[in-house]
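Recall that a protein's primary structure is simply its ordered list of amino acids. Everything else, from secondary elements to tertiary packing, is in principle encoded there. The following example makes that idea concrete.
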Amino acid sequence: MLLAQKEATLEEIRVLDFDYETNKLPEPAYQAQRAHLMEIAGETLQALDELGTEQPPDDVAAQIEAAINRVRAQKQEGGVVAATAVPANGRSQFCPQCGTPVDAADKFCGACGHKLAVPA
């Protein structure tokens, strides 16, 4: 569960970065959403560290960025990484495109219309 949340959060950051780079998001919205996603990713990495599944990070931000680069490399090599609405706190879920809260049963984000993949 935590590994899936980590990968989904990294994918959300990658999509957010792409949207910002292609001028789909204004700077203030990008910075706020990226800070929120980085916080979620950091918490997820800390939870994984407590379970002993990964090496303890010297610099959480650097580890997150390295993981984002791994996801980008998978994408470029033809790997498929589905963007899913992942529970950040075990109760609510967020759209991987815009960060708006969505229900688990939603197939599309009500705010941006992004198609939500059904978690396996």
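The chain has a mean pLDDT of 75. DSSP finds three helices and three strands in the chain.
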